[in-house]
Every structure is written in C-alpha cells, then in structure tokens.
Specification:
By secondary structure, the protein is α+β, with helices and mostly antiparallel strands. It has two helices and six strands, in the order E-E-E-E-H-E-E-H. It starts with 7 loop residues before the first strand and ends in an 8-residue tail after the last helix.
C-alpha cells in the first residue's frame, strides 16, 4: 500500500525580499516570498530543450522561522524549503457560473516548515550570510526554528 503525502521540497532563488506582515488576531509575524525554480521541457517541433522559471509563492507562519527569513533571506538568496500544500477555496464576489451562482475560486498555498540557506545573493548584500560559518549559523537557527511546534492558522 502506498503512503499519501502532502508535502513539497523546492530549491530555488528568492525573487524579492521577503514581505513581513502580522496576523490581525494574535500579532504573530507572517512572511510571504516568491521562489523561482527551474523547469524545462523538450519542444516537439525543434526537439530542443526549453528552459523556463516557475514562480512559487511561499508562506511562513512559524514565528521562529519567520524571524530567520526576515534576518537572513534576501532577493537572490538560494534556499531549499520544505512544507505542506494547502488549498483555499471561496465563493467569487464578481464571477458567476452559467446558472448565476457565484463561481468557486481556489488557490494553493505552500506553507514552509523547514528552511536551508544554500547560497547568499550574488550582489553581496551585507545583511545576508557571507562565509560558510555564517551560512552554518543561519542554517542552525533555521533548523531550531523548524522544530517549533506551532499551529498553522487555517
């Protein structure tokens, strides 16, 4: 029997500095960030490999992990993230089906529960880890923050 698994594991480059907001109910930080990952396919007509970048929106709810993202992750950082996928659905406010009922809308959220910093940005931003020791320190903080037992608010 196979085991069903709701998880993801992405390695890519951060597309913009992480955005930090706060939950209105409890004031805890929430980080959102986009991650670019490589995707390729073979063109049927030319038989050439076509490279492209897929952008994935990540969300960090864990308070300690959000702090690590805020302190160490910047645009251009290469990171590896793991977590779970959550599908949100709601009734559209302005779109309807053929019968006039509101259309159901949905989106997937990639909720990060584990982070590993692979490389600093190429522009050498001073607030990101530079030496291997700094990366090790950042990854140790991320590992400790990933062990937090915290509820995800959905």
């Amino acid at each position: 029997m196979s085991r069903m698994n709701n998880s993801f594991d992405f390695t890519g480059f951060v597309g913009s500095d992480p955005e930090k907001r706060f939950m209105p109910t409890n004031g805890k930080p929430v980080i959102t960030v986009s991650l670019g990952v490589d995707a390729s396919y073979k063109d049927r007509n030319t038989n050439e490999t076509v490279e492209r970048t897929e952008w994935i929106d990540l969300v960090v709810y864990r308070e300690g992990l959000a702090g690590v993202f805020d302190q160490y992750v910047r645009k251009g950082s290469e990171i590896r993230v793991r977590g779970v996928v959550h599908k949100e659905t709601w009734e559209s406010k302005d779109r309807t089906n053929e019968d006039g009922k509101p259309r159901m809308e949905s989106r997937y959220r990639f909720i990060v529960s584990d982070l590993r910093l692979m490389r600093r940005p190429k522009d050498g931003a001073s607030s990101t880890p530079t030496a291997p020791e700094d990366l090790a320190q950042a990854n140790a903080a991320a590992a400790a923050a990933s062990q937090e037992d915290q509820d995800i608010p959905f």
